[in-house]
């Protein structure tokens, strides 16, 4: 994946707590292969009524060009399904701003080049109030760790490990390959120290 | 050893750290990697790169999420059949042991692992499933991961992680009659919030936790993720060892003795410190049920719903939206709310002890609403049938079906109809979790059985009095 340090585009507010990954992508869509694209299923049951008609009041239906999502606490909690991140990414979302994220979701997001930026609750509430039901141009700068909207410059929180990974577009499997000898040595020591940890082949 | 006192978590973490990178990320060795139908994305990533599975013997597959609970020999839905076939093909191709649809050991991954002795104290266990925290009940470091990470573990048998903070939840006193590990879990999550333990590894301790069976400890650790924790764990003790001894993949003979000796050192040392300490009095916990669409929206059965008008800002919005979705009225009593159906099962509460307790409530009684009972594994099913529990359920009017994730997530087609209210022994009351528009109330299996008998959400205590 290519690294990046600037995200620019329209931001929209989705003022809800606890948007879990079951809402981000309902379970019934999860057998779809990734190459088919997950964008249409993002927040499916919030965006569409039971008959499949888009709900006009839903911000993501009115602003399909949204690139940044501003939302409330505990975003991406629940199931570890990475498909929740695929749905956001395939829809075009590059960053999510919230007071807190589910741990597994945040890690999945970084692995797919989606930024989970943490801001204090009062900052988020002010941003939600400012955006209302409109979309507004916003810039997220990973290098400086700030968000720029209008004349405002607002700092955000991101684990330094994740910041590096997003900026450099690091791939974990490639990184780990260089540690092959250390892993092999560890395995041998582990088998000695804890023989119960090893298993024989298929039965 | 004369080193500084350390926590159980620190001992487990340090025993698995292959290396610590400059930026603070640890590369950890993975002892057990469990895969299921949902792991298809990860296998596809591996195939894209043409990589083999590094340690097929330490990787174990099981069919659970899409497992049909009826008519298993003829799977009607081609999508479901394809998901199951894909897992069986992927595990076969890579020489991975797989408990498939016809295996008598098939079951929900977090029920099957402990049952087979694949889950042991001291291990690091990963699975592409958030409820992997369940295995922490054995004093293992067990946490859920996403598909990219599953691919990484398949390719390298290691995982990059940043070290979480530590938190101890000590439960003092004693639980009241008919109050279970489920009630304990829902009540701490209600107090601290669904993100209350975010970024933390939890150790559960204190006399109430020590007094729980392995089934109870698994329920407690399972729900750690619903409070936002990275993982949950309990120090292994004689209860743990008695559960493991003799299981197929557990060590035997001299190896067993040596392992137990090792495992006895897996406890938090006196004087070790945690980043956060929380204490609960077990005696204050009542049977607990959720009323909203997040596990944090839980209340003792004796309580009334909140009134959004008395809450502020985002909290008021949340309560209003939840009540609207759930079709409930502000301030109403939760006790007496009529339900449409019940479900007993899942990796949270689908074990033999859970079925026994539900059966104790249902014995000689009739359910007023329809419902499904799906044991957590084929072996739990066989055991329950041997004990005659299946007859109690069917005579009460509930449907007794095969094992799988079933109505916990509905991927196999076991769904709650839109607008229907379900009393459920599962772990997530999220909007649409049990089906589009479904209304889920989480509670213990005993409370689900009580709801079946009365047709309403109700206090199980009088119904169980004198029965257990
Ligand atoms: S029973 Fe439910 S929570 Fe457990 S593994 Fe299956 S779907 Fe996940």
What is the fold named in CATH at topology level of the largest domain in chain B?
A: Aconitase, domain 3
Largest interface comes to: A-B, 65 and 83 residues
Q: What is the number of strand segments of chain B?
A: 19
Number of domains of chain A: 2
Largest sheet of chain B: 5 strands, parallel
**Overall form of chain A:** globular
Look up the CATH topology of the largest domain in chain A. Aconitase, domain 4
Radius of gyration of chain A: 20 Å
Find the structural class of chain A using helix and strand composition.
alpha/beta
Amino-to-carboxy terminus distance of chain A: 39 Å
**Helix percentage range of chain A:** 25-40%
> Which strand order does the major sheet of chain B show?
5-4-3-6-7
Strand fraction of chain A equals 15-25%
Provide the residue-averaged pLDDT of chain A.
95
Radius of gyration of chain B: 21 Å
User: What's the N-to-C terminus distance of chain B?
Assistant: 45 Å
Task: Give the CATH superfamily of the largest domain in chain B.
Answer: Aconitase, domain 3
Q: In this structure, how is the largest beta sheet of chain A organized?
A: 7 strands, mixed
Give a list of the ligands.
Answer: iron/sulfur cluster
**What is the CATH first-level class name of the largest domain in chain A?**
Alpha Beta
What does this 3D model show about the protein?
The complex is a heterodimer of chains A (203) and B (468). Chain A is of the alpha/beta class and 203 residues long. Chain A has 2 domains: 6-170, Aconitase, domain 4, CATH 3.20.19; 171-203, no CATH class. Chain A has helices at 21-24, 44-47, 59-62, 83-91, 103-111, 121-131, 160-168, 172-177, 180-193; strands at 6-14, 68-71, 95-98, 115-118, 136-141, 146-149, 152-155. Chain A has a 7-stranded mixed β-sheet. In chain A, strand 3 (95-98), helix 5 (103-111) and strand 4 (115-118) form a beta-alpha-beta unit. The longest helix of chain A is centred in the last third of the chain and has 14 residues, at 180-193. The two termini of chain A are 39 Å apart. Chain B is an alpha/beta fold and 468 residues long. Chain B is built from 17 helices and 19 strands. In chain B, the strands form 5 sheets. Chain B has a 5-stranded parallel β-sheet, with helices on both faces. The radius of gyration of chain B is 21 Å and the shape is globular. The mean pLDDT of chain B is 97. At the A-B interface, helix 5, helix 7, helix 8 and helix 9 of A face strand 2, helix 2, helix 3, helix 5 and strand 8 of B. The complex binds iron/sulfur cluster (SF4).
């Amino acid at each position: 994946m290519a690294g990046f340090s600037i995200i620019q585009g329209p931001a929209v507010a989705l003022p809800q707590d606890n948007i879990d990954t079951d809402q981000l992508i309902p379970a019934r869509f999860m057998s779809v292969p990734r190459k088919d694209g997950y964008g249409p299923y993002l927040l499916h049951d919030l965006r569409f009524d039971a008959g499949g008609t888009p709900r006009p009041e839903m911000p993501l239906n009115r602003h399909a060009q949204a690139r940044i999502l501003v939302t409330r606490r505990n975003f991406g909690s629940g199931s570890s399904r990475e498909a929740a991140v695929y749905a956001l990414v395939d829809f075009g979302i590059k960053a999510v701003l919230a007071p807190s994220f589910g741990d597994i979701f945040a890690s999945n997001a970084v692995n797919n080049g989606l930024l989970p930026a943490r801001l204090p609750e009062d900052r988020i509430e002010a941003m939600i109030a400012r955006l209302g039901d409109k979309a507004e141009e916003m810039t997220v700068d990973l290098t400086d760790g700030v968000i720029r909207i209008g004349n405002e410059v607002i700092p955000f929180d991101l684990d330094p490990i994740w910041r590096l990974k997003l900026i450099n577009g690091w791939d974990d499997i490639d990184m780990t390959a260089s540690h092959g000898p250390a892993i092999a040595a560890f395995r041998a020591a582990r088998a000695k120290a804890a023989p119960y940890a090893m298993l024989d082949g298929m039965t | 050893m004369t080193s500084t006192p350390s926590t159980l978590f620190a001992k487990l973490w340090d025993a698995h750290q292959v290396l610590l990178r400059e930026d603070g990320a640890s590369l950890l060795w993975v002892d057990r990697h469990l895969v299921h139908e949902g792991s298809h994305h990860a296998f596809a990533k591996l195939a894209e790169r043409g990589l083999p599975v590094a340690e097929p013997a330490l990787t174990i597959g099981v069919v659970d999420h899409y497992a049909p609970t009826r008519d298993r020999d003829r799977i009607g839905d081609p999508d479901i059949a394809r998901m199951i076939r894909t897992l069986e093909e992927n595990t076969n191709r890579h020489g991975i042991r797989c408990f498939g649809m016809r295996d008598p050991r098939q079951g929900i991954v977090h029920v099957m692992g402990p049952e087979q002795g694949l889950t042991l104290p001291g291990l690091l266990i990963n699975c592409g499933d958030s409820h992997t925290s369940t295995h922490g009940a054995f004093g293992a470091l067990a946490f859920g991961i996403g598909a990219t990470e599953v691919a990484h573990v398949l390719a390298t048998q290691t995982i990059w992680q940043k070290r979480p903070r530590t938190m101890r939840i000590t439960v003092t006193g004693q639980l009241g009659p008919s109050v279970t590990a489920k009630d304990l879990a829902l009540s701490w999550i209600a107090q601290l919030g669904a993100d209350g333990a975010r970024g933390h590894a939890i150790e559960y301790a204190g006399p109430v936790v020590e007094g729980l069976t392995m089934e109870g400890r698994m329920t407690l650790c399972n729900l750690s993720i619903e409070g936002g924790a990275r993982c949950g764990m309990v120090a292994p003790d004689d209860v743990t060892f008695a559960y493991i001894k003799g299981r197929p993949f557990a060590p035997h003979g001299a190896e067993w003795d040596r392992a137990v000796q090792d495992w006895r050192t897996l406890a938090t040392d006196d004087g070790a410190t945690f980043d956060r300490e929380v204490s609960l009095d077990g005696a204050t916990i009542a049977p607990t049920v959720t009323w909203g669409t997040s596990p944090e929206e839980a209340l003792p059965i004796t309580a009334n719903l909140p009134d959004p008008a008395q809450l502020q800002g985002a909290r008021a919005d949340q309560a209003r939206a939840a009540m609207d979705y759930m079709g409930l009225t502000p301030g109403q009593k939760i006790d007496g709310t009529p339900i449409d159906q019940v479900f007993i099962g899942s990796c949270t509460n689908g074990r033999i002890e859970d079925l026994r307790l539900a059966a104790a409530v249902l014995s000689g009684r009739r359910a007023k609403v329809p419902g499904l009972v799906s044991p957590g594994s084929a072996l739990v099913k066989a055991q329950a049938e041997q004990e005659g529990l299946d007859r109690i359920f069917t005579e009460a009017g509930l449907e007794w079906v095969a094992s799988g994730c079933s109505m916990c997530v509905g991927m196999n087609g076991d769904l709650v109809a839109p607008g229907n209210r379900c009393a459920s022994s599962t772990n997530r009351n999220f909007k649409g979790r049990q089906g589009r528009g479904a209304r889920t109330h989480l509670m213990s299996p005993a409370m689900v059985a009580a709801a079946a008998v009365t047709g309403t959400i109700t206090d199980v205590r009088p119904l169980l009095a004198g029965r257990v």
